[in-house]
Amino acid sequence: TKTLHELARESGRYFGAAVDNPELADTEFADLLGTEFGQTTPGNGMKWYATEPQRGVFDFTAGDEIVNYARANGLKVRGHTLLWHSQLPDWLTSGTWAADELRSILKNHITKVVKHYRGKVFAWDVANEIMNEDGTYRENIFYKTLGPGYIADALRWARAADPKVKLYLNDYNVEALGPKSDAYYTLIKQLKKERVPIDGFGLQGHLALQYGFPGGLKENLQRFADLGVDVAITELDIRMILPSDETKLAEQADWYGQVTDACLAVRRCVGITLWGYTDRHSWIPAVFPGEGAALPWDENLRHKPAYDAIRNALTAA
Ligand code: G3I
Fold this sequence. Notes:
Helix content is 42%, strand content 18%. It has 13 helices and ten strands.
């Protein structure tokens, strides 16, 4: 039987799953990741706290480990992430920076990290989670000190460091049509108009059964594609209130199928990445106590109904 990635590849797409470094030591997990999927994203290994733990001192150990694993198993890699308000190193968050100095810190970080991974990652989440729910800019350290222009600067610095890599903005709660996705639509349209390098929009896809399926997902993907950028589902998982039961697992399966269908319906939707693939390794129980069971494989790496739903959607395409 074909793997999910082999099925996705038939329409020129990838099907991937994220991995956090410690999980590679779980050989049963790593083997299945390497065979079933064609793409991976480091869950933490390329974030700022990992790559520049001291100012000007770069450490690519964690990211390289995943790149090497991916190469050995024929997976391509999305780089995640150059700029985010979370998981920044202490030296950066505890400092008070004049605009010029912070700008040069950001430029140096982006330049060094992108150059290091040139030819090894096919895409970068250049800026992650830069909007609030109401569509205003998130007041992260960069926004507060540099103003909204830091986003275009970051994209330009990334492009200068690697002319070929695909440059993405990436966020959660942007799957539905609404104020947050509207804000990205407006921003990307403006960036395009100003000839700022922007190649893609990543919709994380951290969904939860109790909040309902994101309305207009397919139309939303299509409107970004129509701006002339790629779109991707970058961190898909669909959590539920525990305990799981047959009804919830069936609804979850239906949602996984719907997300897959939506991507397949949009020519510029280049692929889908699960945020991990098994309930054995998932960020959710630690962050949302009482919720989980979000992935298509259970703790014992057995297929859940969601797996069949993804498979069916990919096969029908
Ligand atoms: O590194 C420490 C380790 O030294 C310590 O022993 C351990 C004990 O808790 O914590 C480790 O740090 C954890 C880190 O992951 C590495 O495992 C943090 O506590 C934990 O908060 C952190 O969680 C990550 C989270 O981002 C942080 O916001 C998740 O693994 C990661 O999957 C998650 O990924 C994000 C995406 O980057 C952006 N979109 C949302 C997504 C889910 O939150």
